[in-house]
UniProtKB/TrEMBL annotation:
Transmembrane segments: none annotated. Keywords: Aminotransferase, DNA-binding, Pyridoxal phosphate, Transcription, Transcription regulation, Transferase. This is GntR family transcriptional regulator. InterPro entries: Aminotransferase_I/II_large (IPR004839), HTH_trans_reg/aminotransferase (IPR051446), PyrdxlP-dep_Trfase (IPR015424), PyrdxlP-dep_Trfase_major (IPR015421), PyrdxlP-dep_Trfase_small (IPR015422), Tscrpt_reg_HTH_GntR (IPR000524), WH-like_DNA-bd_sf (IPR036388), WH_DNA-bd_sf (IPR036390). It holds the Pfam family GntR. CDD domains: AAT_like (cd00609), WHTH_GntR (cd07377). Residues 1-69 form the HTH gntR-type domain. The keyword Transferase applies. In the C-terminal section; belongs to the class-I pyridoxal-phosphate-dependent aminotransferase family. GO terms for molecular function: DNA binding; DNA-binding transcription factor activity; pyridoxal phosphate binding; transaminase activity.
Length: 473
């Protein structure tokens, strides 16, 4: 991101947060130049960019003023899925989304990929190269089934920020968070069992349950406070549910952070019905506010929470380094890990461990949190500017995923097919439901650099959305 783009993003964020009100005069070019230590031409370019985005308006001999804005879209209401066990579908649509990952010709607005272009990740590259030059046979050999001990120690140390107190021996390294979730599910469930999930929920978890022959009950979920504990309690009373799977921190795809009181209530509810909790915390360290939110695992008094996470969203998905802290299910998880993949590749584990140990990880996290929060402000402005008025938009508290809800008759699956002809791909909401619900919703990624290309993609998405609504969905 250039200096003028960075300044434009900062000003857009201030406008979004209401620090500059509609119709208010903005600081002069000379004043901003002095305040931010940039040239006058840089400030002028930033103002021109904001003018193109219709966020500000110039007035002759008076300067720049905040433009009148569309009203901020409301947040999505409590979801209302079918609350009975269902077989999971949508695999073909998930495969279609995954198949375009390697295509540089497609603008992937719906992916769950972080920004891996930042300079703060360079020490990781250097460590990967250094390890390769060592030609140490241990890097090409089988490792302990538990994972590299130094990495497990660093993970235990990092977990203190989330309120957890466990040691390296409580951690099992996995091939990404996806495997952590998979072996956790297999450790507590069998074919034909029933699992409760948030609705909408991560499509990877859904497809894992599908592959294991497990049925799902989707529980109504609020885009601000999380899974409905009242509906979950009713489901526990009606059905022999074996586990509940939740993403309480920086939820995928809604972006909420579950309030601490509700986290404690969820733990109590699971204790009362003796049900396992599988916690996906892969986005938790990307919360915009610090300290980061506590995990359910930190409130777990009897070992029923299986905490799953990875470096896939905070560092790079290609590392394929994740972990699970399985509590009372440790032996089952370890055996399932053995029959699932055996040990995890050593070199990525060593590189990640050194990156953390040398003190690079926390500065990197701070930079990414700041960037994603700025990106969210810009993306929210674009969505408000280019999308129809009758939509609902989530208010993420961390991570880099936004959920957009359109009128009931809208079909995001059909829209995605149209957009792919123009080199743009979205994630239709139906991917995040066992039964294909939420076809009128879509998930947008705001992690990637927000430049003219991404703005053009959002403009195209908004125009195509409006046209589809005019055509009846």
């Amino acid at each position: 991101m250039t200096r003028y783009q960075h300044l434009a993003s900062l000003l857009a964020e201030r406008i979004e947060q209401g620090l500059y009100q509609s119709g208010e005069r903005l600081p002069s070019v000379r004043m901003l130049s002095g305040e931010h230590g940039v040239s006058i031409s840089t400030v002028q370019q930033a103002y021109h960019l904001l003018e193109e985005r219709q966020l500000i308006q110039p007035q002759p001999r008076s300067g720049y003023f905040v433009a009148p804005r569309k009203a901020t879209p409301p947040v999505p209401a409590l979801t209302r899925p079918v609350q009975r066990p269902v077989e999971i579908t949508q695999w073909e649509s998930v495969l279609e989304l995954l198949s375009s990952r390697g295509s540089g010709a497609v603008m992937q607005l719906g992916s769950g990929i972080p920004d891996i272009s930042r300079s703060t990740i360079k020490p990781l590259w250097r460590e990967m190269v250094r390890l390769g030059h060592l030609q140490d046979p241990r890097l090409l050999n089988y490792d302990s089934l538990y994972g590299v001990s130094m990495l497990r120690e660093q993970i235990a140390r990092l977990a203190v920020d989330s309120g957890c107190r466990f040691n390296a021996d409580d951690v099992v390294i996995t091939t990404g968070c996806h495997e952590a979730l998979s072996i956790s599910i297999r450790a507590v469930c069998q074919y034909g069992d029933i699992v409760a999930v948030e609705s909408p929920a991560f499509h990877g978890t859904m497809q894992t349950l599908r592959g294991l022959g497990i049925r799902v009950i989707e529980i109504p979920t609020d885009s601000v406070s999380g899974i409905s504990l009242e509906a979950l309690e009713l489901a526990f009373e009606q059905w022999p549910i074996k586990a509940v799977i939740v993403v309480p921190n920086c939820n995928n795809p809604l972006g909420f952070i579950m309030p601490d009181a509700r986290k404690r209530a969820l733990i109590s509810l699971a204790q009362r019905f003796d049900i396992a909790i599988i916690e996906d915390d892969v986005y938790g360290e990307l919360a915009f506010d610090y300290p980061r939110p506590v995990t359910l695992k930190s409130l777990d008094g009897d070992g029923r929470v299986l905490l799953c996470s990875s470096f896939s969203k905070t560092l790079a998905p290609g590392l394929r380094v994740g972990w699970v802290v399985p509590g009372r299910y440790f032996d089952r998880v370890l055996h399932t890990k053995y029959i699932n993949t055996g040990s995890t590749a050593v070199q990525p584990q060593m590189a990640a461990a050194e990156f953390v140990r040398q003190g690079h990880y926390m500065p990197h996290l701070r930079r990414m949190r700041q960037q994603y929060q700025r990106n969210l402000s810009v993306m929210t402005c674009w969505v408000r500017q280019y999308f129809p008025a009758n939509i609902c938009v989530s208010r993420p508290q961390g991570g880099f995923l936004m959920w957009v809800e359109l009128p009931e008759n809208f079909d995001a699956v059909r829209l995605n097919r149209r957009l792919q002809e123009h080199g743009v791909q979205i994630a239709a909401g139906s991917l995040f439901s066992a039964s294909g619900k939420y076809r009128n919703c879509l998930r947008i990624n705001y992690a990637l650099p927000l430049d003219t290309h991404s703005e053009q993609a959002i403009r195209l998405l908004g125009q195509a959305t409006e046209q589809a609504l005019n055509d009846g969905g």
